[in-house]
Amino acid sequence: MGIGVKAPHLSFVAHALAVAGAVMVLVWTIHFRGGLAWDSSNKNLIFNLHPVLMLIGFIIIGGEAIMSYKSLPLKKEEKKLVHLVLHAIALILGIIGICAAFKNHNESAIPNLYSLHSWIGIGVIVLYGIQWIYGFLVFFYPGGSPGLRSESLPWHVLFGLFVFILAVGNASLGFLEKLTFLENSGLGKYGAEAILVNFTAIVTILYGAFVIFTVFAQAPQEDDHSYSSL
Amino acid sequence: MGIGVKAPHLSFVAHALAVAGAVMVLVWTIHFRGGLAWDSSNKNLIFNLHPVLMLIGFIIIGGEAIMSYKSLPLKKEEKKLVHLVLHAIALILGIIGICAAFKNHNESAIPNLYSLHSWIGIGVIVLYGIQWIYGFLVFFYPGGSPGLRSESLPWHVLFGLFVFILAVGNASLGFLEKLTFLENSGLGKYGAEAILVNFTAIVTILYGAFVIFTVFAQAPQEDDHSYSSL
């Protein structure tokens, strides 16, 4: 038990940051960038699905999945179910969000997979999938032996946090990359849109930080020390 | 004590990644980008000091400072001295590295402090400085009361790791930002230099990951549980 702050209190700050980040990415893509569409002659609208799905779908829901196991006042089996279902939703929305980026690239003749953002993005989604499948098999169904479970748990937490931090960092790379493209095409470096995008990235990073602080904080039920082995 | 791997073993992997990253950033700046200079009519050479000082000076030495406290087989007071001296060197080289970026911008008429990379960079160096001063006052000289020390320690570790992760993430932002500028000016997206810069960023991220794994690994002396309170 690292820090004496209660996990649910920290998770409330994270929820507030999640709402702020979600609103900001929607204002950016809809108000400043023209809206969202899966099919359109305006290929930018296809791209816009990418930050929305990655931030709201993958990172925010993924973060809520992480916090749910620590901060919800439920029984262990119920929390486990919430945890794995939320992570599954995050993973699926993340995959759709990545498909939106490829669809935009392919329909706009933009090269694929040359940037650090794309490389790390593919790495993150693959590691996230592996982590989910391993967690499902060992901790849910069919379930490993008690020895395997207790040996796997700290690795599950550490690897999960590593992938989540990578995802948050990669979101920042994405915001910076897209904004750099726009600024190279004439967007004002100190204009409202640039400031909004930078602050969306900062809110995303703060959300990620509070998700992780929640993991190291005090669980609501004192008999639950599932995460305190780290 | 989270994971059963020994801290010195993990730190060897980190050292190897540090050497690889240092070589890569030097090859990039010297072989591909023309070299390093504090004063030059070729302003790019001034910029080149920035990635070199931030990666080798700030992140690598800062990471070694973090690991030293966990992985060196020394007495607590000796490790503390190594830890704070290495962090001081990292902080000073980081500040010089940031000055190099401003010097290049000012002499090349490039606007300052508009990008996410620059915003986070200023935040990181300020937080790093605050963390160093607080750590010095509470844990070294004049030193806080035993109660204050033991209450501060998990926060010192957590906040320190947070700032270090931010620094590593921000290095990735810097590599991506610079490479995006170069690619917009015609550099090949799949060329040798682009691949080198992306892999330098990935080696930096892996180094950061192994530094953090070291913190959660097993200390060489079993009586030292300074970090196991997390």
UniProtKB/TrEMBL annotation, chains A, B:
Its main location: membrane. It is a multi-pass membrane protein. Its cofactor is heme b. Keywords: Electron transport, Heme, Iron, Membrane, Metal-binding, Transmembrane, Transmembrane helix, Transport. PANTHER family: CYTOCHROME B561-RELATED (PTHR10106), TRANSMEMBRANE ASCORBATE FERRIREDUCTASE 1 (PTHR10106:SF22). The keyword Acyltransferase does not apply. It comes from Hibiscus sabdariffa (roselle). It comes from the Eukaryota. The chain crosses the membrane at residues 12-32, 52-69, 81-104, 116-141, 153-175, 195-217. SMART domains: B561. InterPro entries: CYB561/CYBRD1-like, Cyt_b561/ferric_Rdtase_TM. Residues 13-216 form the Cytochrome b561 domain. It holds the Pfam family Cytochrom_B561. It is found in: Membrane. CDD domains: Cyt_b561_ACYB-1_like. This is Cytochrome b561 domain-containing protein. The keyword Lipid biosynthesis does not apply.
